[in-house]
TrEMBL record:
Record domain N-acetyltransferase: where: 3-184
Pfam family, one: Acetyltransf_1
Keyword vocabulary terms for this entry: Acyltransferase, Transferase
InterPro entries: Acyl_CoA_acyltransferase, Bact_Acetyltransf, GNAT_dom
Protein name: GNAT family N-acetyltransferase
Keyword Transcription: no
MF GO annotations: acyltransferase activity, transferring groups other than amino-acyl groups
Cited SUPFAM superfamilies: Acyl-CoA N-acyltransferases (Nat)
Keyword Transferase part of the UniProt annotation: yes
Organism for this UniProt entry: Aeromicrobium endophyticum
């Protein structure tokens, strides 16, 4: 039976035309991640995955599916940024474990790469989860921080297709028992804490847009090609509305530098309705305000907000570059433990 690769058109809703195909696509993605990490803690619900996988004004996403007959055996996602096309494209390729080593991944990757190049991407990037195992031959990024098993299927596949490992990211989890024991420290002089649940408060939208833009340049990116990713009030509104429309709640803690009226830092946690695991999203403290333990303060305050708002949540999961030692120090002091690794791979094509 021959392999076919076609583009998947995203449905307007799960019960709209194409919804069944998307559900199969999303289930395959979750199954692959579960197989890689050995846990379903990071599995996304269909509504939230649909929300994240659609295109927006600042992000274009195209989707490919591979089938043997009527059975979906692989999928690929190609993400580009219309505002910064020179930053390249992010690719994701998944093949159901039972169908690997049959050329499906190679065919899907070739199709995804061709589409990305057609869209004008000068560099192709991959962020993918890898297994965590000690011993054996290791592969290290140029940063010297973190490593991966050389025999990991994803590692072997990407190296064979010309991708270079640039960065290793730690996936960490904070259990409920440790989460409920956290307590925030005092707020330094000249600073004021702010917290809210749901969409960004109107008075802070412009400030938060500025922080999100800085996040794209201040977060460690190793050798990955990264460019400033501009945010404005409209993009913040769109992001917040998309989160809320997918039955998720965003919890934000921010700190204002009172003399200047500027937000010096923020952190966000997203919780799915009825979900057991919350996702720690961006955390940033501006360079001029570092050294005051504001990062720790923000994370602890938001943890308190999480426990108070969603007492049934069992854990929080987060991602941090291995070279981001200041933030890893904060997480380790809070009690986060490693559950997996994600790596950034890159290949220049133009």
């Amino acid at each position: 039976m021959s392999l076919t690769i076609d583009e998947l058109v995203m449905p307007d809703a799960l019960d709209a035309p194409g919804g069944d195909d998307f559900a199969e696509y999303a289930t395959l993605s979750n199954d692959v991640e579960r197989h890689t990490l050995g846990t379903d803690l990071l599995a996304m619900g269909l509504h939230e995955m649909l929300s994240e996988y659609v295109s927006t004004a600042s992000r274009t996403r195209r989707h490919l599916v591979a089938r043997h007959g009527d059975v979906m055996v692989g999928r690929a996602m190609i993400t580009t940024r219309p505002l910064t096309p020179e930053a390249g494209a992010y690719l994701m390729v998944d093949v159901t474990p039972a169908r690997r080593r049959r050329g499906i991944g190679t065919a899907l990757l070739a199709a995804a790469e061709a589409l990305a190049v057609e869209l004008g991407a000068p560099v192709l990037k991959v962020a993918v989860a890898h297994s965590v195992r000690d011993g054996g031959e290791r592969v290290e990024p140029p940063t010297g921080f973190g490593d991966l098993p050389a025999d990991d299927p994803g590692v072997r596949f990407l190296r064979a297709h010309g991708y270079a490992l640039e960065q290793v990211t730690r996936i960490s989890l904070l259990d409920a028992d440790r989460l409920r024991d956290l307590a925030a420290a005092g707020v330094p002089d000249d600073y004021r804490l702010l917290t809210w649940a749901g969409p960004t408060l109107d008075q802070w939208i412009d400030e938060l847009a500025a922080l999100r833009t800085r996040m794209s340049t201040d977060a460690p990116s190793a050798g990955m090609v990264m460019l400033p990713d501009p945010w404005d009030a409209g993009r913040v509104h769109e992001h917040d509305e998309r989160i809320a429309s997918s039955s998720r709640t965003m919890l934000t803690a921010a700190v204002e530098h009172v003399p200047s009226g500027v937000l010096a830092g923020f952190t966000e946690i997203v919780v799915s309705e009825g979900g057991a695991v919350a996702v720690q999203e961006d955390t940033l403290v501006l360079t001029d305000h570092r050294g005051r333990r504001l990062g720790m303060l923000l994370k602890r305050v938001n943890a308190e907000q999480l426990v108070a708002t969603f007492p049934s949540v069992e854990a929080v999961v987060t991602w941090n570059a291995e070279e981001n030692r200041p933030m890893l120090d904060v997480n380790e002091q809070m009690g986060f433990r490693e559950i997996g690794r994600e790596a950034g791979w890159q290949k220049h094509v133009l």
